[in-house]
Specification:
This protein is of the alpha+beta class. It is built from 6 helices and 11 strands. The chain has one domain: Alpha-Beta Complex (Nucleoside Triphosphate Pyrophosphohydrolase), CATH 3.90.79.10. The strands form 2 sheets. Strands 1, 2, 3, 4, 5, 6, 7 and 8 form an 8-stranded mixed β-sheet that branches. The protein has a 3-stranded antiparallel β-sheet with strand order 9-10-11. The protein starts with 6 loop residues before the first helix and ends with a helix.
């Protein structure tokens, strides 16, 4: 629901409602390969786990920003990566949105209402971890006080939307991988400060960016004005 948010956010929600599928396709077109869908993974016999994430817009210093997080270093495929807060569907969750809201509160220490959720994005299957992830977009009217779970969150990363809008913001980037960071791949990624945002997180952000740019005649000016 977007009725209590600024007009720009209402316009964004309406654009998602009308043309949401097309923004997912725009994001896919920016990637060098096509990821399998959940259905395709299931058909191939993979044990697909379900998850949901919450991509949240917040105002900061007069402009709109997206809230991401850096994962701690741990022995897993997403160790140290920049990601969107969220996690695996649990038996207690009534739907994917319940998962996204619960996980956001557990990881970030901030409760987000269903009324603050304005849209959803394309479900994405992540082969390295066998997760099918459903993203949602929420909007908060002020920057909250984060009370993060340090086991899950090493750092809160608040990225200005304006930084993501230039045509070259998503660019081919060398990414170090492996236990000793001795492997290198090249993939489209966003850079913010000393962070590299890649993989499924970059695809979801690219989908959000496509919607933002298609919604507003002057996307940068809207990103820099939270009224």
């Amino acid at each position: 629901m977007a009725e209590h948010h600024p007009k720009s956010i209402q316009d964004l929600a309406n654009r998602f409602a009308e043309h949401g599928v097309s923004f997912g396709r725009m994001a896919d077109a920016k990637m060098p390969f096509t990821r399998p869908t959940k259905s395709e993974a299931l058909a191939q016999g993979f044990h697909v786990r379900l998850a949901a994430v919450l991509l949240t817009l917040v105002p900061s210093q007069g402009q709109w920003c997206l809230v991401l997080m850096k994962r701690p270093e741990y022995p897993g495929v997403h160790s140290g990566q920049i990601s969107i807060p969220g996690g695996e569907v649990e038996a207690e969750d009534t739907d994917n949105l319940s998962t996204a809201l619960r996980e956001f509160e557990e990881e970030m220490g901030v409760m987000v209402s269903r009324d603050d959720v304005i849209a959803d994005l394309t479900e994405r299957y992540i082969p390295p971890s066998n997760f099918a992830v459903k993203p949602f977009i929420a909007v908060l009217d002020r920057m909250p006080m984060w009370k993060v779970d340090s086991k899950e969150v090493a750092e809160v990363v608040v990225v200005p939307v304006a930084d993501l809008l230039p045509d070259d913001a998503l660019r081919n980037t060398a990414i170090k991988m492996g236990k000793d960071q001795n492997q290198e791949i090249h993939l489209p990624a966003y850079r913010f400060e000393d962070h590299i945002i890649w993989g499924a997180t970059a695809i979801m952000i690219a989908e959000f960016v496509a919607a933002w740019k298609k919604t507003f005649p002057d996307p940068v000016a809207t990103a820099l004005d939270v009224r």
